[in-house]
Amino acid sequence: MEERVQWFDPSLGTPIVSVSKTGLTFNRAAVVLLSRPAFVEVGVDSRDKCLVVRGVNAGGDAGTGPQPGEDDRARRALPFWRSDSPTPFVRVSNKDLIRFIKGAVPEVEIEKATKYLTRLDPERRHLVVDLRQPLGGRRRRKRG
To answer: What is the pLDDT of residue 8?
Structure first.
């Protein structure tokens, strides 16, 4: 049972992925759970209404892309973490990816950025973004 437990780390907080019309944003906790891979694959489970994100070990850096001759996983991978990045979060900007997600799960909200809870699948080490669990509304800023 111990290997299936995902422990909360108060220094990171809750892993969250935001979905917007231009791409996905992974907060620091989500990036750390994925172990900061240079590339990721994103899949959609339309029945369970979730995204599945897994790191890809591809030759090269997120700035250069997978190398010629690598397997299909590497060719499908999207650039993710750059070791020289000054920010702790990652933004994957790809409108085709969002169209792909919207086609598989039409009820997902993309017109405004929506945050979703995520969890790590302990057996496969995939990050699962549950599109049925959006976080509450945005806070309004005080004016004046």
So the answer is: 79
